Amino acid sequence: MTVSAEVGRSDFDRVMVPNYAPVNMVPVRGAGSRLWDQQGREYVDLAGGIAVNALGHCHPAMVEALTEQANRLWHVSNIMTNEPALRLADKLVAATFADKVFFANSGAEANEAAFKLARRWAHNQFGVDKSQIIACSNSFHGRSLFTVSVGGQPKYSEGFGPALGGISHVPYQDVAALEAAMSDQTCAVVLEPIQGEGGVIPASDEYLRQVRALCDKHNALLVFDEVQSGMGRTGKLFAYMDSGVVPDILTSAKSLGGGFPISAMLTTAAVAEHFAVGTHGSTYGGNPLACAVAGRVLDVVNTPEVLDGVRHRHQLIVSALEKMATEFGVFSSVRGRGLLLGAVMAEQWRGKAKDIQVLAQEEGLLVLQAGPDVVRLAPSLIIEEADIAEGMQRLQTALQRLVA
Length: 404
Prior knowledge:
The protein is α/β, with parallel strands linked by helices. It has 2 domains: 9-58 and 304-403, Aspartate Aminotransferase, domain 1; 73-301, Aspartate Aminotransferase, domain 2. It is built from 15 helices and 17 strands.
């Protein structure tokens, strides 16, 4: 069979497993918060690779870090360590509550490690009966069998055989339900400080404080999934820093590598010691290329200039969205923190988030959904104000077409 050098969107349907439904264009180049497709059409990118491209596309610092490391060392596996991994771990420990770091390649892998560690910790400390993991309805923690079972969305787990046992779900931000579900058999409570796929719903500080207290009462670990909310997206390096509530385990991915696949599980020394040699691993985890890029991303993001800028850009986008909500009546509210934002569809427009996504793309704007009723924005943390203004203008044109 001859393989053509020319490929397009139709080739996806021909050669790729159909578990995705990509949009009808293929991007080929990016710079900052702009993308160009095969036909040369330009788009303002407010999707950010689903909250991944923290510094936009092809940021010079990332390109430099990758190029330098590519000429030195690519891979050594976990039978030895490497300098970029050690440097990145040092930076993460210095910047957070954590004492120890485990590197993997995706948010699902970081969460898989977190859930396994929580159960291992409980098993070693309290015995085999302390294994219950409590998570929230409508949560999302990944697509592996373990993480999809912990995630509170049955549509992602149904049809894959018996669900893993020992996992319970309670409504998000319902302290009474959580308290009723917890017992001495609970080993961990898993939360997203901001539910991302579930609709961009921030947890209140008081709720997080009460969850922390319940975990302490029942000798359970508190696990924060900050795969989407972390690495500066809220205007703090991690969302937990806004609440003052410190978890026992935290997971990070997405923006950590700014587009290069990497994830991390952060935890305390007392918890980490239960992952003894041979208990868990990842062939590519801590890859020198990924760690070199992520280290440079962290250097850029973890600065007052960028973090303060996130809060400023938040206000610009929210003000524009609220103005559009008043003008068109399509949105009932805007929620989220920093540059993880959700425009909630008004009652009469429920189920139309996908329509807006499609119309926006036709106008040269990339946005996301968080379910059928929320338009989600997760742009670069350093998006230019001119790109915000242009993106909001294109969204306004899309909304005009929607209501026409």
